Amino acid sequence: RGPPPCAPRAAAARRAMPAPPTADSDSEAEDGPRKDEYGDQFEDYGFLKRAEEHKKAGNTFFQKERYEKALKEYDGALDQLITVAYDKSIIIGKQKWNDVVVLRSTIHLNKS
Questions:
Q1: Coil, strand or helix: which one is 35?
Q2: Distance between CA 82 and CA 104 in Å, rounded?
Q3: On the CB side of 16, how many CA atoms lie within 13 Å of its CA?
C-alpha cells in the first residue's frame, strides 16, 4: 500500500504554510525599546490604553444617563493610572507624563 492520492498535495500545503510567530504580542520588538509620540522611551504594558478605554466607556454610560456605571468606569480608569504612577517598571517621558496628568484630571472632572 502507498500513501493516499491526496498526500502529495497535503504535504505541499504544509510546506507553504507560514511558520507561527515565535514571540507573543507583549514581547518587545527586536529594534529596541518602544518610543512614544514625542520620541521618548516608553513602556506602559497597556495601562494607558486600558485607562482610555475605561474613560471612553464611562463617557458612553454618562451619555446614556447610566451614572453609576459611568462612575465605575471612571474609577477603573483611575485605577489604571495609579498603576502608571507608582509602578517602577513603567517608563514614561516627561511630555507623556504631562498627558497622563491631563487625562487623570479630566477623569476627575468627569466624575464631578
A1: strand
A2: 9
A3: 6
Dig out the grid coordinates for 11 from the structure: 504535504
CA distance 83 to 80: 5
- Give the residues of the chain that fall short of pLDDT 70: 1-32
DSSP one-letter code for 91: B
The per-residue pLDDT for 37 is 87
**Coil, strand or helix at 43:** strand
Q: Residue 92, Cα to own-chain centre: how many angstroms?
A: 15
Q: Would you say 60 and 93 are in contact if contact means Cβ atoms under 8 Å apart?
A: no
pLDDT at position 14 is: 46
40 touches 70 (CB < 8 A): no
Q: Tell me how far apart the alpha carbons of residues 53 and 5 are, in angstroms, rounded to a whole number.
A: 53
Q: Which amino acid is at 86?
A: Y
| Cell numbers that stand for 54 in this block | 475605561
Please give the pLDDT value at position 30. 54
